[in-house]
Amino acid sequence: MPEFIHPSELEETLKDVSNVPEPDVEFMNSLRARFIAEGHASANKNQETQMRRKTFSQRLTWALAVLMLVTLIVLSTQPTVVNALKRLFGYVPNVGLIDQSSQVRMLVKPVTVTRENFTVTVEQAVLTHESTVIVYSYSTPPDFSPDPGLIDTRSPSVTLPDGTRLEIIQGQRVAAQDCSTCAMRYSMQFGAIPANVESASLQLPGLIGTPIGSTPQDWSIPLKFRLTGPSEIAPVIEYEVTPAPTETASPASTEPAINIPTQEVNTYGVTHGLDKVAQLPDGYILYGHVTWTDRSIRPYGVSANLSSIKDANGVDVSFDYAQIQSNAKPEDMRQDWAFKIGKDFVAPLKLDFYMEASLDVDGGSFTFDPGPAPKLGQKWVINQDVLVDNKIVHVLSVEQAGIEPGYFQFTMQSDSNIIDAFIIDPNYPPAGGGGGGGGMPQIGEPFFSGYGYQMPLPQGPRTMKFFSIGVLVPGDWALTWSP
Amino acid sequence: MENEDPRRTNVDSQTVQRALAGDQSAFAHIYDTYAKSIYRYHHSRVGNTPDAEDLTSQTFMAVIEALPRYQHRNNFTAWIFQIARNKAMDHFRVNHAHSEIHESVADPAQSDVLEALVRDESRARLKSLLHLLDEDERELIRLRYTAELSFVEIAHLLGRKEDAVRKSIRRILDRLSIQMEAQNA
Lengths: 483, 185
Prior knowledge:
The complex is a heterodimer. Chain A is mainly beta. Helix content of chain A is 13%, strand content 43%. Chain A is built from four helices and 28 strands. In chain A, the strands form four sheets. In chain A, strands 1, 2, 3, 13, 14, 15, 17 and 18 form an eight-stranded antiparallel beta sheet that branches. The termini of chain A are far apart. By secondary structure, chain B is mainly α. Helices cover 70% and strands 0% of the residues of chain B. Chain B starts with 12 loop residues before the first helix and ends with a helix. Chains A and B meet through helix 1, helix 2, strand 25 and strand 26 of A and helix 1, helix 2, helix 3, helix 4 and helix 5 of B.
């Protein structure tokens, strides 16, 4: 009588048969290091490329389009002037903007704790009446090469002398290029520590980002606080911009000490302005915002893109992205921006922005048939005009692009202000997709939109539907600023 | 095996965003979550360590290149395994080889000789039956029992419904079970 094999038993045998030898630890660790290093380098390269794209000067097509629109805007814009300057804020490196309307305290000195050749250093602590920000870094032994495992993401906390525990509010990794021994550096925000409390301890369950158990656990680092000196916080000038009376508003006639034009146009109710400038020893950080009132725009759907900064002599001024400090919620219809610049320029500076809004659209579709066996790199001509948001989008062609089969990149063009599109195939869930962009958007120039199918690739004609579009918001969004 | 591997649910959109921002810990997280599964998958297909290592390396390098195009739909596992599958297919296209499920290394610590003999015989029979499966069926077995993907993950990867994947695997198991029974008889 043969023995009946139960499915569970069969599954066990299947797992056994399907089993393979364990991978070589040295290989896995080596690949891990390579993946992390190359991934990190690739991400940085992508970000640099993105930044370079944004520094390209505007081309004639875009300039002409803006020029035509400026005339309209001048008629509908209320000129603005700087109404007041305040100095409530200060700036602390790695921490950012802080409210110094009440006393600010810092660490008496950095604190370093070493256990089993792992070192944690609390570099900074900034205590205000609103919050406590602690910046710490850690270093690992040179031969630290842990086995892969569950990465430690447990949150730190702060314990006060009376046992009160402050949980983390938010945290982020911050740059550590200036610290050759730092493996990681984090900035963690906790609740405010009462002004009469002069010490606390930072509790770290483990070292974030390392496999749990591969490093010493349960760190307790004592901290002592003191009042800050006046030179320890960089000054921040806050600009409060209010509309000026229309009849007196003219940039040529008012000439405020700091000229910050803020434009407001009827289209989408977009307003753009400079909020604060932090004055650092080596340069400035400019903080600004864009707001809108049109609720048809998606949450976080308007972005102010800095294309170039030129000084009074027309020389390009390089800029870098700085940490944005914003508590804007989706319903606030606001986006903030921050850029860092050096000091080597002739004032005033002109910051050229273009404004892009993302709008949901319902409909507009086209079809194409890639055939039974599309090849990587294969292209198809589509040449279909699609009505999207009452504007024509010319869908020119599609290519199976990229390095994996299933990803299709569509080339489109519109003579309207549509500069980007997000399309979907409602019949098949995507594996990926997204608009393509490709540098400074120009009205009338081709743009790209991708869609990645899950494999196996569906057969037959595909119907692609427009899901959302990106449009250039009419207006001259340039700002001028002098230190 | 019925549920998602908890390690895999941790690669969320924030992790991807952090990776895109250059956060090394995010890349470490992605690697630690998937490296072993992907290696096992490749080894199952190519049957030797050097090629499995090479394909695993290629997969992760391709992940770096493709990551900016990834859009989160709670299917990172399907996305990364799609890359792995494509790498494996490229390998076979180039080498004109056929994939198969390879036998694992025998356990030297096996103490019960009789039990070992029975088990080895059963394994050999099952292995021979696996060769009779078509490639789609073998891929299902590979994804389920070697890469240890959940039904949901396999469904995402293959663009099928979870229930359909579950039924397909069940049908394969039933058929294998009957065939094993028949051979025993």
